[in-house]
Structure formats: C-alpha cells, structure tokens
Design a protein that fits this description.
Layout lengths: L4 E8 L2 H18 L8 E5 L2 E7 H16 L4 H24 L7 H34 L8 H13 L2 H20 L3 H4 L4 H8 L7 H9 L1 E5 L6 E4 L19 E3 L1 E4 L2 E8 L14 E4 L7 H6 L2 E4 L7 H9 L3 E3 L4 H4 L5 E5 L4 E4 L2
Parallel strand pairs: 8-9, 9-10, 10-11
Antiparallel strand pairs: 1-3, 2-3, 2-4, 4-5, 6-13, 7-11, 8-12, 12-13
Helix pairs in contact: 1-4, 2-4, 3-4, 3-5, 3-6, 4-5, 4-6, 4-8
C-alpha cells in the first residue's frame, strides 16, 4: 500500500515508552473496541518519537467507536471507571517513589511496569482514540448530544493521565539504576526494551552499547506476530514507500485551526517537556507538539498556545477555552519551523501564525 502510513502523533519520550505505546496501541484497543493497530511503524531518533499508523486502521477504529456509541454500549462507562482506578494506583506509586525508601530490583520492576503499561494504555491511548472517533463523527455533522456522555468522560481522562509523571518520577529511577550497572548514561538505558531491563536487573546479559547507540540515532519499531515481540529496524529506506510525502518547512506562515479566538504577539518558546518550562517566561507564546496537564504552569503564564497536533477534543483546545487563551491547533509543523526566540503573531481569529522577526 503506497502512502498508507499516517503520522498521527509526535512525542518527546524515551524509546522504552515507545515500546509500551506500540504494545498498547494494539492490545488495549483490541481488548476494548475490538480493533487494534497491528500495522504501525513507530520511529525514534534522539528522544523524538514519530507514531505512524495505517489510515485504513484509523478509519476502522473511528467507525467502531461511533458504532458502539450509537448502540449505547455500556462498556464506555466500565472502561472509564477502570481508567480512573488505574490513575489512583499511579498516584499511589508516584507517592511511594517520592519517598526516601524504595527498592529498585526485579521484584519491584514487575508491578511498576504493569502500572505504567496499564496507565499508558487505558488512561492515554484509549481516550485518545475514543475522542478521535467522536471528533470524526461530529465533523460529519452527527449531533453532539449523542456523544455528550462519552465526550465528557474521555475528555476528563485525557486531561488527567499520569503516564508523564510515572515516567519522570518512577521509570526514570530504573533507567538510572540500569545505567549504573551497564556503566553508561541514563539516555542510553532509556533505549532498552522492558525485557532487557528485566534481564539486566536479574544479573543477566547486558545489551551492547553499540546497539543502544544505533537505537538512539534512529530506529523503527514494528510488531511481530507475538504482540509483545518488537522488531527493530535501522534502515531508513525500508518504509519510505509507505510514508506520506514530506512537508515543506520553509514557510513564514503556519495555518491551523482556531481553538479559542484572539490575536497576540509574543516570543516563541518550544515546550514539550516539564524541563522545557524552565526557560518559559510570563507572556511567551507556548509552542508544543501537543499540550498536556504536565505543562499547565507554562500554559497559564502564556499569552497564546500553538500546537502541531489538534482536534476539537485535544488538551490544548479544551484548556485554551477554559483559560480564554488565543490558541491555534493542528499546524502540523510549528515545532519544526519555529524556534525559541522567534517573534510571532498568533491570529487565532483566522487560525494563522506568522513569523514577524
């Protein structure tokens, strides 16, 4: 299939997290709506992750979500309650690892991995694709009232996912411990597969640093027939025939969708992680791949929001309406075209971001 792969998301996260995401995009969606992403190609280079899925499978997922809503399927409430419970377990784990006394070994890794994996799947991936299906329905003109309950539940879940905090406060502790064992950096340790971390914590064979360096520089991840087996590819031409054509980055004006109207001028700061907030000043324009609850302190201090990703149910869209901040979503390339210090005009009345200096 030519150009079948669609890049639906781009994230700053460790390769370890990308493996979990690849698993759960298949397993959790199959367990719930009955259709998983089996034909995905997730790519990683230096902490930047590109998530590509089949357009055919995206359409199937959206149609299945709409079908379940129209049937009044009670499963949406059951899944919501399960996800809420998983968020509570995540909070308990985060509190535990903020204390002074905790063990980092094989025994503790198993429950940590399960909570992280479950939270990623049920509280992040599932809400994302349910809301994607709802958005597709609303864009077709279906009445919002039919989707109101599902929309309310899963907007809440999407805005409250704990996976970023779990990664930073818990999983990173394991990267640090394994890095000490391997005598390497945490950055390289974050490129390990969960099975490899489990083996290393048990005193087993170490992964060659050359292999981790290759994964850090560029690799693609695909699923094997066994959903927990991941294939690593290092050939950048292997999937080129299925990828959409590249986007022109030499532009001075970006077009997106207005999430909340208003016109402001300000200084760009690219903010994708909690650490990026250190450089953020009051009144800056927050430019992000996608906003998230972990970035809320910067969002509150911003004069406007601009994101690569979008959709009427995305976090930036919801939070900008709540805070009454001018916001342009779905530019696709803002974080690639703009850089820290650029002066821009955000015209959220028209959904246009212009570089003025």
């Amino acid at each position: 299939m030519q150009n079948d792969l669609v890049q639906f998301a781009e994230r700053r996260m460790p390769l370890f997290n990308l493996v979990i995401s690849l698993w759960q995009h298949n397993l959790v969606l199959k367990e719930t709506i009955g259709i998983g992403f089996t034909d995905s190609v997730f790519m990683h280079h230096h902490g930047l992750c590109e998530l590509n899925v089949s357009q055919r499978e995206m359409d199937m997922v959206a149609e299945r979500v709409q079908e379940l809503v129209q049937k009044g399927d009670p499963s949406f409430r059951v899944w919501y309650e399960r996800a809420k419970d998983l968020n509570k377990k995540a909070d308990e784990l985060i509190d535990q690892y903020q204390g002074k006394s905790f063990n980092i070994d094989t025994a503790t890794f198993e429950p940590v991995l399960k909570i992280f994996k479950d939270n990623f799947g049920w509280c992040t991936i599932l809400p994302y694709w349910i809301l994607y299906g709802v958005e597709r329905a609303l864009l077709k003109g279906e009445p919002k009232e039919s989707y109101a309950d599902v929309l309310s539940m899963y907007e809440e879940l999407k805005s409250q996912t704990r996976y970023p905090q779990l990664g930073q406060m818990v999983i990173n502790r394991y990267f640090g411990h394994v890095a000490e064992i391997m005598k390497t950096t945490e950055e390289y340790a974050s490129c390990l597969h969960p099975d490899e971390i489990r083996r290393i914590l048990s005193g087993g064979e170490l992964v060659m640093i050359d292999e981790l360096e290759k994964r850090m520089n560029w690799c693609a991840l695909t699923l094997n027939k066994n959903p927990y087996e991941v294939n690593f590819s290092f050939d950048q031409n292997e999937f080129s025939g299925r990828m959409q054509p590249p986007i022109d980055l030499n532009v001075k004006e970006l077009k997106g969708t207005s999430a909340y109207k208003g016109v402001v001028r300000g200084t760009v700061k690219i903010v994708n992680t909690i650490d990026d907030l250190k450089k953020f000043n009051e009144g800056d324009v927050l430019v992000s791949i996608q906003s998230s609850p972990s970035l809320i302190s910067g969002i509150i201090r911003s004069s406007a929001l601009v994101t690569d990703e979008g959709g009427i149910m995305c976090h930036a869209s919801i939070i900008s309406r709540e805070l009454k901040k001018p916001c342009v979503i779905g530019t696709k390339i803002a974080t690639k075209v703009l850089k820290d210090g650029d002066k821009v005009e955000v015209d959220a009345d028209r959904g246009i971001v212009s570089i003025i200096k």
